[in-house]
Amino acid sequence: MSNGWNESARAWIATIGDRGDWGREHVLDAVMLARIAGKGFRSALDVGCGEGRFCRVMREHGIAAIGIDPTAALLEEAKRRDPQGDYRLGKAEQLAFDDNTFDLVVSYLTLIDITDFRAAISEMVRVLKPGGTLLIANMSNFASCNPKGWVRDGNGQPLYYPVDRYLDEFPVWLAWKGIEIENWHRPLGAYMTEFLRHGLVLRFFQEPEPTSGDPERDKLYRRAPWFLVMEWSKERA
Where in the chain are the domains? Predict the structure, then answer.
């Protein structure tokens, strides 16, 4: 990874604590936790673990988690916050693990960061044990197709959130608080086709509601939601 990417990663780390950013804390975490708690998972791989937050969460629930990430700055922070954790430099498109290794594979807002997402999904399925679970949190495909955000009136009030180029696949550069990051838009069907091509079975799908307690922000999110959660299972032979 480039020095620029590492600098953006350090800037992002500085904006969040252990509760994560707004979307994780107030939209996704409750759903993700409900999908792992008390399910009997013993081993997990967190693909794109970032600063290791969800690895620490999984360990609190008795799951031995390994985190991989391609960004050295994020792994340094993960190891600083959790010296006993298992965090490794690696890319989703080429996982350095044997076939059928993990009960649970997690991609928590990482598919949108991966250029070759088809190779990444193939690798995640490969390392997943038969009967295991692939848990995905991803950006809404309706949101990801519009890098410019809301159209607003002369007073800055949001009028509508446009959808454009939905069926295309293309990179989107986002910038906030001094952070720049490349995400990818793909239509939902592109992801679904890959999961189904590998014989996975969809067990859970949700577009979570916000729970921040901030009426204005929650109302805006309900008008143009940003996230979805999927759980897929790898069938036994």
Answer: 3-139+194-231
Q: What angle do CA 191, 228, 216 make, to 5 degrees?
A: 145
What are the tens digits of pLDDT across the range 35-89?
999 999 999 999 999 999 999 999 999 999 999 999 999 999 999 999 999 999 9
- Residues 120, 235: Cα–Cα separation, whole Å: 19
H or E element: which one contains 234?
A: strand 227-234
Beta-carbon contacts of residue 42 (< 8 Å; ≥ 6 apart): 62, 63, 64, 103
Residues 103 and 133 sit within 8 Å (Cβ to Cβ): yes
Residue 161's pLDDT band, with cuts at 50, 70 and 90, is very high
Sign of the C-alpha dihedral computed for residues 213, 216, 219 and 221 taken in this order: negative
Fold of 3-139+194-231: Rossmann fold (3.40.50)
Side chain identity at residue 224, one-letter code: A
Distance CA 62, CA 236 (A): 24
Task: Retrieve residue 109's tokens.
Answer: 């807002």
Torsion of CA 204, 122, 173, 7, to 10 degrees: 110
Q: Which helix (H) or strand (E) holds 54?
A: helix 53-60
Which residues does 143 contact at the CB level (< 8 Å), separation at least 6? 161, 224, 225, 226
